[in-house]
């Protein structure tokens, strides 16, 4: 697969996330995908990740990720800096989270791992 395709896949993942389209997001994951978030913990497998995302979008029904640039890291991985904004339904407060997301792809183009890190954790990862 062309390395630019991985960047395109990462962009598609962010676009679907901004649309809160869990059905199409789920189709991007390998069955054994893992997901780590400094904000929400670790999840293993499509079902657990889907449940976490459903809960997240229920809590932040207007969540939106702003990404300015994507870059390749390694052979099949993409990294980007983001700002996520939304209203927390549990508190009514506006939330703005800064972070770095790394998406790792299997050779077939499916996502096999995502890491969402706080900016200060990137140099430690």
Structure description:
Helices cover 29% and strands 42% of the residues. It has 125 residues and is of the alpha+beta class. It has one domain: Nuclear Transport Factor 2, Chain: A, CATH 3.10.450.50. It has a 6-stranded mixed beta sheet with strand order 2-1-6-5-4-3, with helices on one face. Strand 4 and strand 5 form a beta hairpin. The longest helix is centred in the first third of the chain and has 17 residues, at 3-19. The mean pLDDT is 94.
What are its keywords?
3 helices, Nuclear Transport Factor 2, Chain: A, 6-stranded mixed β-sheet, 125 residues, alpha+beta
Mind describing the biggest β-sheet? 6 strands, mixed
| Number of E-type strands | 6
Describe the oligomeric state of these chains in a short phrase: single chain
Shape: globular
DSSP helix count? 3
Q: Just name the CATH architecture.
A: Roll
Strand content: 35-45%
**Radius of gyration based on Cα positions:** 14 Å
Determine the structural class based on helices, strands and strand pairing: alpha+beta
Helical residue percent band: 25-40%
**How far apart, in Å, are the first and last alpha carbons?**
26 Å
| Mean pLDDT reading | 94
Give the ordered list of helices and strands.
HHEEHEEEE
User: How many individual domains?
Assistant: 1
* Low-confidence segments: none
CATH class: Alpha Beta
CATH topology: Nuclear Transport Factor 2, Chain: A
